[in-house]
Amino acid sequence: MAAKAILSGDLTIVHEGESLRLIQVTDTHLTGNSDGCLLGMNTERSARAIITAALSTERADCVLVTGDIAADGESGAYQQLETLLGSRVPSMWLPGNHDCVVGRLDPYPDYLKRRLRGKHWDVVMLETQVEGEVGGVLSVAELDALAQAVNDAVTSDKALLVATHHPLRAMRSAWLDEQSVKNAADALALLEALSERTAIISGHVHQESDVVVKNVRMMTTPSTCVQFAPESEDFALDDKDPGYRRIVLGPDAQLDTQVVRISDDSNRPLLTSSGYD
Fold first, then answer.
1. Domains in the chain, please, with CATH?
2. What are the pLDDT digits (tens) for 218-259?
3. Spatial separation of the C-alpha atoms in residues 94 and 111, rounded to whole Å
4. How far is CA 20 from each of CA 67, 84, 249, 277, rounded to the nearest angstrom?
5. Of 82, 103, 220, 258, which is least packed with CB atoms within 10 Å of its CB?
6. Of 104, 43, 35, 116, which Cα lies nearest the Cα of 76?
7. How far apart are CA 147 and CA 149, in angstroms?
């Protein structure tokens, strides 16, 4: 993570109707060029297919990008993502463990917002990246930001959606659970003040999940490229299609969500791959 918090301020959007409609896109692993691949899969081609499908079919107020934008911190990856997203729908970005925060994201402050405020829900973005490490942690600044978001939600009688890169729970997958957020319990303790009026969306694990832990609904979302096999002791790929998550946040803490997958039989990963750096 950066020496100081890189996320700040609110994203202001035109929010029509009672519901806040979001798209989550995660783990694009872009390389800054059109022929970059991850484990045999062209990441720009897959990200383009996912983003194009999402923006053409969903009535979205905002796109949440939850980390690992770049494959290995490539500076061109962030311009590549900006181009793929376009300017029609605003977006908020989080760094992941594969992203280079210092310098590379400096030109994109408009996307590095901390909060999005809706009529019935607020959204808070939390950075979990630890420089030089694969696993995550929430710094004092991030926990303070969460505490403030929880307090504001309680005061205004809203629900709260928390977005992170690393999940705040174990995935029952040994190699991935070694990379979990070390102080996730501190965040969950803060969320207790909202009881069941909160949810968390995350990336990093390249797979779909949706469970409730300590009254908090926790979801992970497929990568726009390669997928990891659930509940695997060691690194293993899944043959499921990449995708995105649609989220509709309504009155009385209502949350409706589905994962949408997009198939491209001519752009598939090498399923026998044994890992990547």
1. 19-261 (3.60.21.10)
2. 999 999 999 999 999 999 999 999 999 999 999 999 999 999
3. 9
4. 21, 22, 5, 37
5. 103
6. 104
7. 5
